[in-house]
Amino acid sequence: MAIFSWPEAKLLDTSLSSLDGYFSEPPVRAQTLTGGLTNRCWKLVSADGTEYVWRPITPITKAFFISRHEEYQVLSAIERLDIGPSPIVVNEQGLLVEWIAGETLY
Q1: In the chain, at which end, N or C, are there fewer CB atoms within 10 A of the end residue's CB?
Q2: pTM, entire model
Q3: Count of domains observed in the chain
């Protein structure tokens, strides 16, 4: 998992620029995440230390009919159950959710 500054990450994945209006200060770090089936997700760390996951919309997610808007709706519906990440924002480029620390089960 490579770690980048916010400007570097936005050069690698232009969908990240869609979050500029969300953050009052740019994230201090962006890290690529491994293990996804459909695309490269990013772990973002905000200036106040809050951690997020950016789940972009890509040609692959479109090919598999994966809808980040529907994912946002489902996560919103189950949020009170505390069984998944809280959805933060969804836009035409992807979905931002809270980071949940843990280990990947294989």
Answers
A1: C
A2: 0.92
A3: 1
